[in-house]
Amino acid sequence: MLDSLIVIGLATVGLGTIHEADGVQERSFWLRNVGTDSVMLRQGYTSCGCTTISFAQGCRLAPDDSTRVDLHFNPRGKGGDFLEQGTIVYGEGRKRVTMGLEGTCISSEESLLRQFPIRLSDSLRLSANRFDLGIMHVGERKERGVVVLHRNEGDRQERIPISFAITPDMPKGLQHVPVTLTIKDLKAIVVLDVVVR
Questions:
Q1: pLDDT tens-digit profile of 148-189?
Q2: Is residue 22 within 8 Å of 47, Cβ to Cβ?
Q3: Distance between CA atoms of 151 and 1, rounded to whole angstroms?
């Protein structure tokens, strides 16, 4: 006795570069029962609310039968690289088979301004200029990343890591630590809020 579903063809489809304004992207996948027993498609779920999955839930596939599964990806507010997946749970043992959509999404102007609200210049914007590090103890280290949007380079995004450690000489209590970043000869101040214990 064997129950097994496989994706016919590619399990992850590359959408390439899409624009947020293009709207919902849909791709179809085909699942085939390569086992010796029939299997029931029990449920489906996705990796993100931006993705939905459509299939014949409750359908029973005989050996060698196939069925179609559609994944719908809504790129609204999803600028940058993405990999979103849909999973079907099937059979008595609740096995899983997963399909995916990947690519790069170019955000609309409105979304870009929401994602990068801090303006350094006409060509440079930041995702944030303040980070809450929570409670930290002496010797502890945390890292956060500021994402820089280079408008004059095709809206290229670059992550700049900020590493911070608590040293024995730091005062206890709430601290607002300024960190200076230099980006293309421009200085930006990022504030790290931390409670030192």
A1: 999 888 888 899 999 999 999 999 999 999 999 999 889 999
A2: no
A3: 58
